[in-house]
Write a structure and sequence with these properties.
three-stranded antiparallel β-sheet, Arc Repressor Mutant, subunit A, six-stranded mixed β-sheet, 2 domains
């Protein structure tokens, strides 16, 4: 009996050991599989982050009429293709131009150009020193993606500025694009109307085109007052980027008019580029100020009609319509 008991216990111990070993092996295998899945998931995230569909960037007309070889040399297209190249490079680690050519579907000279750009940026290392084999520099890739994130944030913030709610009673004026095309050709960037209010002073009342200058007026009412003070003594104003902390200098044409019975200067403000036709745009600003002078009531519809009529009259005097 003791002998049978010992055998029974031995068999039980072996079975238990096999069972525990099996469970441990399964756990190890499961951990390995999970790690592999995690690695592939991260790679998929990188690929997904850097995926590019050229249909999102090229209009149907361009896609139909521009040959692939021509598209490849376009600078905007090159930037996106550079990002796609980095995604493939991260996946491959070490690669040849021929592998990249197959993955991107580009011709060899275009691939070589992208790789050379990557080497200059420090993203790739030419292992062969002859352009035959490259290695990706992951630290530089991370830095590159960080810069892209910063640019993306700046763009998103700018879009958010455009989407922010306006102060009550500030009009975003609609306009006929065909009619205004001639003014844009003369160098007009934006048009705004600043009114004198006897209770609170100068206020931005309406505008066409939300430029960096217009956004500054919207965010900073004190800037409107400062502008009005300058406009009392000067028709042509240059605001330097150092003074405004904006990326470019601002060039303005300001014309005074009186609104209703309010005894204070109101303004038509034309924002232009530096190389604008100042003479013709000043003439247009003067005509618009004359039309607004003495007006008793201002609404969005009234302003849009007055501006549209003034543009037509101006263009007619120039022989444009």
């Amino acid at each position: 009996m003791d002998f049978l008991l010992i055998i029974s216990l031995s068999i039980t111990g072996v079975c238990l050991a096999i069972f525990l070993g099996y469970k441990l092996a399964n756990k190890l295998i499961d951990n390995i599989i999970r790690k592999k899945i995690a690695i592939h998931t991260e790679k998929d995230k990188v690929k997904k982050l850097l995926e590019f569909d050229e249909n999102q960037f090229l209009s149907e007309e361009i896609r139909d009429n521009v040959q692939p070889a021509q598209k490849e040399i376009r600078k905007t297209f090159d930037i996106v293709m550079q990002i796609r190249l980095i995604a493939h490079a991260v996946d491959l680690g070490v690669f040849s131009p021929y592998e990249i050519r197959t993955l991107l579907g580009m011709d060899f000279p275009a691939v070589k150009k992208l790789l050379e750009n990557g080497v200059e940026l420090g993203i790739f290392e030419d292992l062969s020193n002859t352009g035959e084999m490259y290695k990706v520099n992951l630290e530089r890739v991370q830095s590159f993606l960080s810069q892209i994130d910063n640019v993306k944030k700046a763009i998103v913030d700018s879009i958010s500025d455009n989407d922010e709610l306006l102060v009550e009673d500030i009009f975003v004026l609609a306009y006929d694009k065909e009619l205004f095309r001639n003014l844009f050709m003369l160098g007009l960037k934006s048009l705004s109307v600043i009114l004198f209010d006897p209770d609170i002073g100068l206020i931005l009342k309406a505008f066409i085109n939300r430029t960096a200058f217009i956004k500054r007026l919207l965010k900073n009412p004190a800037f409107v007052t400062e502008l009005g003070i300058a406009g009392k003594s000067a028709e042509f104003i240059k605001l330097s980027s150092q003074a405004t902390n904006l990326s470019n200098d601002i060039f303005l044409i300001m014309k005074k008019f009186e609104y209703g019975e309010r005894h204070g200067d109101s303004f038509v403000v034309i924002e232009t580029i530096e190389r604008s036709d100042k003479e013709k745009l000043t003439m247009f600003a003067s005509q618009l100020a004359d039309k607004l002078n003495g007006i008793q009531q201002i609404s969005k519809d009234i302003l849009e009609k007055i501006i549209s009529d003034t543009v037509k009259s101006f263009l007619n005097s120039q022989g444009k319509i």
